[in-house]
Design brief:
It is a single chain. The protein is of the alpha+beta class. Helix content is about 35%, strand content about 15%. The strands form 3 sheets. Strands 5-6-7-8 form a 4-stranded antiparallel sheet, sandwiched between helices. A two-stranded antiparallel ribbon has the order 1-2. Strands 3-4 form a two-stranded antiparallel ribbon. Strand 7 and strand 8 form a beta hairpin. The longest helix is centred in the middle third of the chain and has 15 residues. The protein is globular, with a radius of gyration of 18 Å. The mean pLDDT is about 95.
Length: about 280
């Protein structure tokens, strides 16, 4: 999702989109849109303030499909959902985490850039940073090195595949690549990619929801007043966490091949935050 938000930042800096662009103006006219979604803008999608639910109501959540829940969910089904979607809140009211919101954001960006999602992220972010082991479609050599995911019971499970939901978590990566990504966020390089990273971290007033960055979760620690940007993630058999604070120039990445994305457990988050505490030498409570 952070990569998706940074792609949005890059397209805005390039003048191809505006954060204030509405869904109605961003989607093809043929796409039916529920009236309550008319005021939703790209900014709302990128800050989880769109009011859209976490998952679309027409996602198959049967036990058989949960082994790979997003593989068959395509743009046609997303459009079908949008025609009758009932938001939980008006846009900008509050921050309410939405996977479907980021799937929709990424889909809009592919329409605006006229590029497949993976190519868009690779061109705007990964290649400029020299990140070479972060991809959706793996080469044979990368697939041979892929660490297999496991369930909480320790059983090997198949990874998830994505169609229109790719912007929510389809990328596979390495700790080395993620450390390169953190390092890029600790600087303020005057390059197109560097400006995109800065643009995504910039806080913007989003209605009653407050001041928010694009894509990132953000906290200011009570003791020490350190600004921490972070995000976590989970797919079938994998859990991840990344965080950094620019004041002390430290960051952490934790990647696990053991977990259940649907279980709502945050052990990896706690490990990452504990490492950040040790690195910062101050309490982040």
């Amino acid at each position: 999702k952070v990569f998706t938000a940074i792609a949005l930042a890059r397209l805005e800096l390039d003048g191809k989109v505006k954060l204030t662009d509405t869904l109605r103006a961003s989607l093809p006219e043929k796409v039916a849109l529920a009236g309550a979604l008319e005021p939703v803008a790209l900014l709302h999608l990128a800050t989880h303030t769109s009011g859209l639910p976490r998952l679309p109501g027409n996602l198959d959540t049967s036990a058989a499909n949960l082994a790979n829940p997003y593989a068959k969910y395509d743009a046609a089904q997303l459009y079908q959902f949008l025609a009758s979607a009932k938001p939980n809140n008006p846009p900008g009211r509050l921050m309410d985490y939405s996977n479907v919101g980021f799937a929709l954001l990424g889909h809009v960006l592919t329409l605006k850039a006229d590029q497949p999602y993976e190519e868009l992220v690779r061109g705007t972010l990964l290649e400029p940073l020299g990140v070479t082991n972060t991809a959706i479609r793996l080469t044979d050599e990368q697939r041979a090195r892929l660490t297999r995911g496991h369930s909480p019971k320790g059983e090997e499970v198949s990874g998830w595949d994505f169609d229109v939901f790719a912007p929510t978590g389809a990328f596979r990566s390495t700790a080395s690549d993620m450390l390169t990504f953190i390092e890029a966020n600790l600087t303020s390089a005057e390059t197109p990619a560097g400006r995109s990273l800065t643009h995504a971290r910039q806080l913007r007033k989003v209605g009653d929801a407050g001041d928010l960055p694009l894509g990132w979760q953000r906290e200011v620690t009570l003791q020490g007043g350190l600004e921490v940007f972070w995000h976590n993630g989970g797919t079938g058999g994998y859990v991840s966490f990344i965080a950094f604070n620019r004041t002390q120039q430290i960051g952490v990445v934790v990647l696990s091949n053991y977990g259940d994305a649907m279980a709502g457990k945050f052990d990896v988050d706690r490990i990452g935050l504990d490492l950040l505490k040790l690195g910062s030498k101050v309490s982040l409570e």
